[in-house]
Amino acid sequence: MFGLTAKETALFKKLSTPQKxxxxxxxxxxxxxxxxETCSSPRVAIQNNKAHCIEGALIAATALWxxxxxxxxxxxxxxxxxxxxxxxxxxxxxxxxWGALSKTNHHVLRSRDPIYKTVRExxxxxxxxxxxxxxxxxxxxxYSRPFSLKKFGTSWITSEENLWNIAEALDLSPHFDIVPKTxxxxxxxxxxxxxxxxxxxEWSKSNPRx
Length: 210
Fold this sequence. Notes:
The chain is 30% helix and 17% strand. By secondary structure, it is α+β, with helices and mostly antiparallel strands.
């Protein structure tokens, strides 16, 4: 299936529920892109034993697809990607409610349990925790509609090349505003305590647990 090797197939067979997929992502070291930016396929990320957010989301979407679910991504856009990166998660539904699977190096942008009636509700759940740790400015501003990976076929799952075409298509897909124009001046900065706790990484640059 998907051109996977026997070893890869065995792994994806084990990732049979959102909980198991998230547990796998949590144990996967963060990709600090020490040799330049990457958007690795699930195969390459698994082989390298590291992933950042979109790479983790692609692994999660593949696992969901492997078990008969739709391979969907959600893009969360910030005010300025140069100072605060966008975040990408994999979406899934249980009993009509949306949840998300997430690879992150900090506790604030983690997975979401399937309790949200709409994708907008789920996206809004990230707003208060999406801020700059130096200033406390809350930066989340837009979210995409569910982005299906089926349109790209299946070769991307095992590609040896970076998946920039998928990343670009996701970035250019329809997005919706989170903050009403009338409310932009009423947003509080995150407190010093929030900023302090949010600045603690799970994986250091040398990759041991912190």
